[in-house]
């Protein structure tokens, strides 16, 4: 069965990727504002904004492709959660389950396996 990446998750990820590129977006916005009075700054600012939008879109396309086509058994549950209609609940359940497994696994250790300090 072919998985289909959730459209809302795609756009949410795109916006997150765009916020991660703040070091390009903030100077671009400043240049666009200065571009109101200085025409070359407007074009440079718009160019930087276009670059940031393209980079964020390409990053999200790569994530989408990975979620839809990955056959890694460790990634399979997460990919299925991202491609479901109720992706928020599924991802939340998956993360909580993994956290529970990690905390239960840490509680079983008694420290006997560790080598003594010398």
Description of the molecule:
The protein is an all-alpha fold and 118 residues long. It has one domain. Helix content is 73%, strand content 0%. Helix 1 (7-20) packs across helix 3, helix 2 packs antiparallel against helix 3 and helix 4 packs antiparallel against helix 5. The radius of gyration is 22 Å and the shape is elongated.
Question: How many β-strands, per DSSP?
Answer: 0
Number of domains: 1
Q: What portion of the residues fall into strands of 2 or more residues?
A: under 5%
Approximately how much helix is present in the residues?
Answer: over 70%
Spatial extent as radius of gyration: 22 Å
Which stretches are poorly predicted, pLDDT < 50 over at least 5 residues?
none
Classify the secondary structure makeup into a structural class.
mainly alpha
How many helices? 5
Features:
118 residues; mainly alpha; 5 helices; 73% helix; elongated
How do the helices and strands line up, and which of them pair or pack?
Elements: H1 7-20, H2 22-34, H3 39-69, H4 76-82, H5 87-107
Question: What is this entry, summarized?
Answer:
The chain has five helices and no strands.
């Amino acid at each position: 069965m072919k998985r289909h990446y959730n459209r809302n998750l795609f756009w949410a990820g795109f916006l997150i990727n765009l916020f991660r590129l703040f070091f390009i977006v903030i100077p671009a916005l400043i240049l666009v504002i200065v571009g109101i009075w200085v025409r070359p700054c407007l074009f440079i600012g718009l160019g930087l904004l276009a670059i940031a939008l393209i980079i964020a879109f390409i990053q999200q396309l790569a994530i989408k492709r990975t979620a839809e086509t990955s056959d890694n058994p460790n990634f399979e549950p997460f990919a299925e959660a991202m491609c479901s209609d109720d992706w928020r609940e599924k991802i939340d359940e998956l993360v909580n389950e993994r956290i529970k497994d990690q905390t239960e696994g840490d509680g079983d250790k008694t420290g006997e396996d560790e080598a003594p300090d010398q």
